[in-house]
Amino acid sequence: LFIMKYKYSHYNVFSAEFNEKILVFNTSKDRMLLLSKKVFEKYIAKNIIPTDINLLEKFIKGGVVVDENKDEINSVLLENKQAVIKNKTLSLIIFPTANCQLGCVYCGQVHFPIKLNEKFYTDITKKVTSLIANKKHLNIGWFGGEPLLGIEIIEKLTPVFKKIAEKHNCTYGASATTNALLLNKRNVISLLENNVKDITISIDGTEGFHDERRPTKGGKGSFKVIMKNLKDLFAFVKNNKSSFSELMIRINVDKYNKEGVVPLLEQLKEIGCQGIVSEWDIAPIHSWGNDADKRSLSEKEFADFHMDVMIKLLEMGLIDKISLPNRNKIVCQAVINDSYYIDPFGKVYDCSEYPLIRNSLSYSIGDVSEETTVLNEKRTFNNWYDQLKKYPCYECKLLPVCAGGCPKAWKENYPACPTIHQNIDEYLVLSYLTLTKNISNEII
Q1: Residues 6 or more apart whose Cβ sits within 8 Å of residue 275
Q2: Average pLDDT over residues 201-230
């Protein structure tokens, strides 16, 4: 061990001190160690590498120390670039319709009563067929607008996609993001039959908060219908063996609805979400081709609020742990060549926030009928990891777990730092108290 020379990793982050102990989490290694305050102050605080072999071995295993010649930043970026190149999942996000029943106050989309024309079915099918070679998994995402307004398109295209995947020895999966207004029993059964087992549902607080933010385009409330559908959905899932692999509730939060979030969680628990909802996405409002960010909480305000909600979810039994942020090599589909968003007009995009917004055509990288090489040349975020040197991400200790955050946000001069950037020291303690994976309970 002592033949090599070591240095403390650039990617060590530390918890606040608690009970004479300190946690060190290495974001590159996905490991966390529990240190006595004495060891921390004797070695790490003074930048002294331990000479005790047992302690040094633990530091090496936990990623706390690394070879002094290792270029950690470029190693992380190289791993990320290799992950993009070696990606074996083909992902297409399809908009069955440009329409939506809701007129959300922060939405940047412009909606039209238009559905994906059948003339594009062949082009989309050809695109999938041309891209699936050497892939292991085909994933189709149904997005919008509101995808359930075009559920017949999901029902028509799914068998075609499954047949292509089967022919090329690929597994198949699908997801959908919905406002839940049409998430009735008939459509739930249809989604499951068409392999849509990953569902994200948006709801923004209790009735008053939600209806002010997410009214129908006719100005009526949507909360009551959504909650009835959710109650029926939770009961259906509980009573049926074939069900969703992931059911996420997304609550979009700004300074105008944060008081309605915890009461909403209580209502959702009352109607049976416990054990059914697998993930809770408490998401900050951001610019979406508009000025929605003016409604936003500050980064610190949102981070503190987010932690309060996570603690409440724990107390309510709606989650049983707060997981550590994992090593993330692919920030989003925008950085992968074989990943496209296809709108109802047959236009192709490389980011989920470009379709249907005002002047969306200026962001399109082409038509679905065009050759893949032509489309990829126009991608906005090619070589994203080489571009990171221009942003604070490049030297940030959280780079291995956030992979730089939203490329679109950085390009538009909006900081894309993850929420935990504001309170990682507190977050580590909370994670430690609720999670045992990758944690040594031995105090070093």
Answers
A1: 238
A2: 97
